[in-house]
């Protein structure tokens, strides 16, 4: 299979070369290579290897109004830390050919579009299907098969697809099939557009087929002389079906999204092989006017881990995706304890965000205006009563395994469970004090249930303070500096972070930073695992479509997260080199 993929990639490259001379064809592509020359550092747990480590990707796309073809070469024979246990290897795992049937009206989208090969797709918010690539997390759950998209009428789109899902360098044996239909009523009913109203309705269905297998269950049963253990063999369903309905209403500055999905019995390793249906419901409302924005949303999910292979754990082989409803923080200490969505256990998640711009030349806005943003996120366990036992806490893995082959538990929809998973309250103020100086201040109060997210560690409560200053020294020179402080009596104790970044337009950027674990104020808590400096020095050069970055420093072991999906990355130290090119 690898030889066939390489042949396809070579063929695309050879065809694309003369194609650039044809005005009807366009060649696009990119190169990304991240390199680490590792060093041993016993203080942080980093180790040296004899190899230079790299994750390298080469993408090519040949585009035409009637067709498109693409392929991606991935070289991870000696991958970066955190990728060695699964992505080690190289080949061409992504390749496709796409054909389009145009409408009579050239201004409208294609009447039909057929893709054969590997592809990415999402239905609605992704509750029952989302395949995508996120290289920083090591996620590529593309489907290998075919997808047909039809747009027979203005505002109507129908998708039908099927295939096998990528699992690192192989494809799972299970098959995924699905269909999605979406109607934009405002395209069909001009009266809605006249009243500045847009309404989109959608319905989706996904099926996973995996060859029937059996699980065994030991049950203690009464006998005339006492009790005896009887072993039962329970067949797992070959077909698991999931469906979803959604409605998205927009009227003027208002927006409302409601979505509900349900999944049939799906006994898998993630839920302890119980026969329990899954569902997720979400309601999101927002308001946006010049200077004011408001977001309110809530989500309840239960037993919604949906994989193309029921026997795997972790982030691989996931068919669906549930957003975390928490902030994706960019400041280092605010992102130190990121939250991961609990797909199997389920959760109640809430988020509220308010943004307001105080106009310039007002008492609070001052000469240049001021922006204030407040965000609150809260995630809590759902109510679960396990069969044959009293109500237990979330992630009761032993109880679920003991109930394998049964319904497992019952749950009340509107009741909370006994534990909080995550809480985040942050306030951010940004204000220009002079024409050339801008200051951003942030305060964040966080509760992080490390036991739920990482398996152990208890509850971590912290307060985080951030100051971010930006000076425009000249039209082409900008200096930005950060100072951050995380205060907690839990886990590894306090942290400090500082950064200085000098930007020299249009080519250069220089930055130095240090994250220091100052630990607990009580010497009794002193540990060799704390009181470490994680320093970084980076030099970046950009020229047109080329970007080259070189650096040296330490990286702390921890979770790298995006959108509620996380991957463990071990500690690193060494010289880094990164090159990006888009054409």
Helices and strands, with pairings:
Blueprint: H1 2-19, E1 26-38, E2 53-63, E3 67-76, E4 89-101, E5 112-119, E6 133-134, E7 139-140, E8 143-150, E9 156-167, E10 170-171, E11 175-184, H2 185-188, H3 190-194, E12 197-209, E13 214-223, E14 226-235, E15 239-251, E16 254-263, E17 278-289, E18 292-302, E19 347-358, E20 370-382, E21 385-386, H4 397-402, E22 409-410, E23 416-434, E24 437-449, H5 450-454, E25 459-474, E26 477-487, E27 494-504, E28 508-519, E29 533-543, E30 546-555, E31 558-562, E32 565-569, E33 572-582
Antiparallel strand pairs: 1-2, 1-33, 2-3, 3-4, 4-5, 5-8, 6-7, 8-9, 9-10, 9-11, 11-12, 12-15, 13-14, 15-16, 16-17, 17-18, 18-19, 19-20, 20-23, 21-22, 23-24, 24-25, 25-26, 26-27, 27-28, 28-29, 29-30, 30-33, 31-32
Question: How does this model look, in words?
Answer:
There is one protein chain. The protein is mainly beta and 583 residues long. It has 5 helices and 33 strands. The protein has helices at 2-19, 185-188, 190-194, 397-402, 450-454; strands at 26-38, 53-63, 67-76, 89-101, 112-119, 133-134, 139-140, 143-150, 156-167, 170-171, 175-184, 197-209, 214-223, 226-235, 239-251, 254-263, 278-289, 292-302, 347-358, 370-382, 385-386, 409-410, 416-434, 437-449, 459-474, 477-487, 494-504, 508-519, 533-543, 546-555, 558-562, 565-569, 572-582. The strands form 5 sheets. The chain has a 24-stranded antiparallel beta barrel. Strands 6-7 form a two-stranded antiparallel sheet. Strand 29 (533-543) and strand 30 (546-555) form a beta hairpin. The longest helix is centred in the N-terminal third of the chain and has 18 residues, at 2-19. The protein is globular, with a radius of gyration of 26 Å. Mean pLDDT is 89; it is low at 10-22 and 389-400.
């Amino acid at each position: 299979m690898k030889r066939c993929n390489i042949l396809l990639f070579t063929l695309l490259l050879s065809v694309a070369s003369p194609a650039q001379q044809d005005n009807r064809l366009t060649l696009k592509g990119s190169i990304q290579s991240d390199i680490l020359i590792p060093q041993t550092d016993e203080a942080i747990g980093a180790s040296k290897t004899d190899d230079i480590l790299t994750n390298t990707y080469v993408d090519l796309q040949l585009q035409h109004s009637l067709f498109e073809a693409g392929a991606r070469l991935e070289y991870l024979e000696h991958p970066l830390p955190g990728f060695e246990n699964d992505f080690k290897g190289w080949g061409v795992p992504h390749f496709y050919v796409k054909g389009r049937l145009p409408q009579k009206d050239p201004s409208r989208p294609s009447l039909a579009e057929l893709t054969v090969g590997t592809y990415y797709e999402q239905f609605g918010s992704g509750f029952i299907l989302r395949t995508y690539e996120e290289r920083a997390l090591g996620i590529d759950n593309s489907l290998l098969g075919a997808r047909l998209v039809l747009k027979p009428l203005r505002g109507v789109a129908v998708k039908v697809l099927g295939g096998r899902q990528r699992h690192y360098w192989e494809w799972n044996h299970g098959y995924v099939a699905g269909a999605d239909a979406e109607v934009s009523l405002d395209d069909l009913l001009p009266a809605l557009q006249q009243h500045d109203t847009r309404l989109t309705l959608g319905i989706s269905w996904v099926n996973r087929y995996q060859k029937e297998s059996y699980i065994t269950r030991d049950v203690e049963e009464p006998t005339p002389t006492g009790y005896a253990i009887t072993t039962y063999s329970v067949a797992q369903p070959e077909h698991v079906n999931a469906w979803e309905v959604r409605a998205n209403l927009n009227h003027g500055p208002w927006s409302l999204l409601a979505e509900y999905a349900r999944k049939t019995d799906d006994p898998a390793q993630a839920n302890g092989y119980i026969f329990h249906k899954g569902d997720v419901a979400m309601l999101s409302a927002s308001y946006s006017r010049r200077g004011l924005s408001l977001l309110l949303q809530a989500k309840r999910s239960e037993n919604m881990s949906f994989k193309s292979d029921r026997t795997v754990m972790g982030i691989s082989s996931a068919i669906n995706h549930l957003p975390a409803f928490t902030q994706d923080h960019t400041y280092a200490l605010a992102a130190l304890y990121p939250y991961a969505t609990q797909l199997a256990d389920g959760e109640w998640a809430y988020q509220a965000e308010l943004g307001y711009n105080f106009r310039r030349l007002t008492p609070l806005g001052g000469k240049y205006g001021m922006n204030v943003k407040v965000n609150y996120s809260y995630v809590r366990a759902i109510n679960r009563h396990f069969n044959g036992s009293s109500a237990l806490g979330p992630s009761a893995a032993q109880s679920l395994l003991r109930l394998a082959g049964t319904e497992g538990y019952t749950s009340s929809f509107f009741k909370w469970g006994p534990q909080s998973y995550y809480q985040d309250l942050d306030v951010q103020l940004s204000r220009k004090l002079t024409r050339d100086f801008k200051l951003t201040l942030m305060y964040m109060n966080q509760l992080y249930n490390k036991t739920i997210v990482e398996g152990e560690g208890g509850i971590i409560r912290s307060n985080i303070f951030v100051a971010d200053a930006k000076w425009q020294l000249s039209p082409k020179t900008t200096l930005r500096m950060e100072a951050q402080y995380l205060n907690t009596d839990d886990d590894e104790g306090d942290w400090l972070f500082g950064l200085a970044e000098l930007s020299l337009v249009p080519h250069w950027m220089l930055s130095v930073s240090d994250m220091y674990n100052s630990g607990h104020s009580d010497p009794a808590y002193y540990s060799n695992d704390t009181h470490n400096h994680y320093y970084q020095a980076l030099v970046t050069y950009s020229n047109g479509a080329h970007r080259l970055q070189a650096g040296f420093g330490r990286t702390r072991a921890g979770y790298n997260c995006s959108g509620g999906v996380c991957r463990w990355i071990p500690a690193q130290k060494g010289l880094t080199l990164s090159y990006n090119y888009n054409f």
